[in-house]
Amino acid sequence: MCINSSTLFIPFSIVAAVVNAQGSLDISTVRLGGDSACNYRLVLRDSFGDAWNGGARVIWIEGVDTTEHTLLNSSFDTIPLPVIQEHPVELSYVAGEVFNSENQFELIGPYDNILYTSPFNPPTGVHYSGTVDCSLDIGVHEGSTNPSLTILPNPNCGEFRIRTSGWEDKNMVIEVFDSNGRTVHRLQLNDSGQGSTLLSLDLVGGTYMVRTSAHGNIGWSRLVIL
Q: What domains sit in the chain, N to C, each tagged with a CATH number?
């Protein structure tokens, strides 16, 4: 018998969540290497779930170091990118021979702030360039304080309420991911990024991740289905 219980509260600005290509789930505080170093993340996705099998790749330049990355298996992978404060960085995409329409990638900053999200079927060329910023200022809208996400109850049987506060945005997106990084539910809130949203999902028991995003800000919380 499934019995709802407990509550999980995670302020988004201090938590990072990663679902890697092997399907394991890691939740940890953002790791900083010192006052002048931090980690960006490169997220690679394939909508068909069979990797980037056309030879596509992304090219990452940090300072004078250049690396190439591709999605070798499954539908989702996250690659850590160590960076140095004020170093120049650049992210390019090279299209493969086939199946580029399945490809999409995202560059995430040190505090889960989205720096760039590509379209599916991204064109060959430079998609992002800038200077590394390891600071805590992630651009929360003026007037918002401690943007947060609460799942109630948690664990639950698939029916739960998501409460958000401090986002000050009318175009919030709520997404639920399974342990393989696949999106199992997506909801666009057009009226308000504040308040409470009730979801009733038919999901198998296990651990999921809930992501809220609005205007470049992003928050993660773990969801347990009994």
A: 8-18+140-225 (2.60.40.10), 33-131 (2.60.60)
